[in-house]
Amino acid sequence: MAEVKNRFDRIxxxxxxxxxxxxxxxxxxxxxxxxxQRTIFRDIRSLEGAxxxxxxxxxxxxxxxxxxxLPPVMFTxxxxxxxxxxxxxxxKYTDKGxxxxxxxxxxKIKSILRYHEKERLNILGSLIKMRNTRENHLxxxxxxxxLKSISEQFQIKIIYEKSGFTGVTERYIEPAGLFNEMDYWYxxxxxxxxxEYRQFRTDxxxxxxxxxxxxTRTHNYEEEFAKLNHEIPNPIEVVIKVRRSILPYIIxxxxxxxxxxxxxxxTHSIMRxxxxxxSESFARWYLxxxxxxxxxxxxxxKIQVENLMEKIWRNTVMNV
Length: 320
Known about the structure:
- This protein is α+β, with helices and mostly antiparallel strands.
- The protein has 4 domains: 2-64, Arc Repressor Mutant, subunit A; 77-126; 142-230, Roll (SH3 type barrels); 235-316, Alpha-Beta Plaits.
- It contains 11 helices and 11 strands.
- It has helices spanning 2-19, 26-33, 37-49, 77-93, 96-111, 115-126, 142-152, 221-230, 247-250, 281-288, 299-316; strands spanning 54-57, 61-64, 154-161, 168-181, 184-191, 196-201, 205-214, 235-243, 259-264, 268-276, 293-297.
- The strands form 3 sheets. Strands 6-5-4-3-7 form a 5-stranded antiparallel beta sheet. Strands 9-10-8-11 form a 4-stranded antiparallel beta sheet, with helices on one face. It has a two-stranded antiparallel sheet with strand order 1-2.
- Helix 1 (2-19) crosses helix 3 (37-49).
- The longest helix has 18 residues, at 2-19.
């Protein structure tokens, strides 16, 4: 039975590859599926026997008759182009597992397009580039393992590196959902070690594996995510005055630091933030625009920025 299933899966895969518009050599197919060329010849004959118009001969390569498609699922050229652009983002910002799944889906999408449409998509795909603004350090199939855990309701075990490289811990977690922030993926999960919901940056997950342990609770992701975004430990109000000329450059980044509202004047924006008084991340962000801004309040935030500036001065000028 397993042999029959494997042969069926292989024939379907060959069929989809043919529909994608590729010229397939029997030796390449044999290498891909780990079988002999004789087996590939039999698979091709099976497709022909099922009415699939396969063109070509052994040794020269196989293709499928132009215009052959599978109704009723059809995509417009514009829809297919959108999938090509999305594929580039998937390859850049997700892990190997999800990228492979998307590639398989794209193969099915291409299979129902006409030959000239397939060629056009191949050209467009080569003209879309993603700059390497940040290296992707995800362990292979991290995101796909998390999504599988959510779907099947099984806990996962992770080896997690804490911030600041202060060591690693073994955790058993129940993922509730994923979110992306500032080019990083995070999983919001119930942590059995801490007995509460925590967020874990996925590039800090050094090992991941699914367990046979079922979830112990029902997770309300929307509720927990809302708490994550609104519950700030030791909150303080910070008000800064920023030149309007730089607003286009910070309008997106400011939302990650507790931005609440602003009052516009002809030359400036008076911005109000609610942030954590123990975190230096907002102060570091402020330093990136410090030459175009002024701190209105509070005094302890001014001191925090001054301390950072003093560290910069010592490390840069005094070579400490």
